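Email to the structure team, subject: UPF0235 protein A9A59_2115 model.

Hi all, the expression group asked for a predicted structure before they design truncation constructs. Nothing fancy, just the C-alpha cells so they can compare against earlier work. One-line instruction: predict UPF0235 protein A9A59_2115, return C-alpha cells.
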Amino acid sequence: MTRLTVWVTPRGGRDAVEGFEAGGTLRVRVRAAPADGQANAAVAALLAKALGLPGRDVVLVRGGASRVKVFEVPLSVEDVRARLAGSGG
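Reply from the structure team: attached below.
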C-alpha cells in the first residue's frame, strides 16, 4: 500500500494527472467543482483510471476539504510512478 499526497486544482478546465513535483507531491487537475465531494470523487476516479485500478481501490485518507489530499492505493511507489509515466502523467 502506498499513500499518495495529491495537490488538486478543482475547476481546472480538464481532467489530467500532471505528474510529480520534486517533493513527491502528485499534481492533478479536475473539471469538477469542490462542492459536495464532487472534486474528491473526480480525483479518485481519475487516479483509478490512470493507475489501472478499480475505483474501490483508491481511497481518500485525509484532506477531504483541502487542496492537498492523501489517497491510499494498493501499489508500491515504483508501480505508481511507472503506471503514471506510461499514462503520460
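Residues 2-86 form a domain with the Conserved Hypothetical Protein Mth637; Chain: A; fold (CATH 3.30.1200.10). The beta strands are 2-9, 16-20, 26-29, 59-62, 68-73. Ping us if the truncation boundaries need rechecking.
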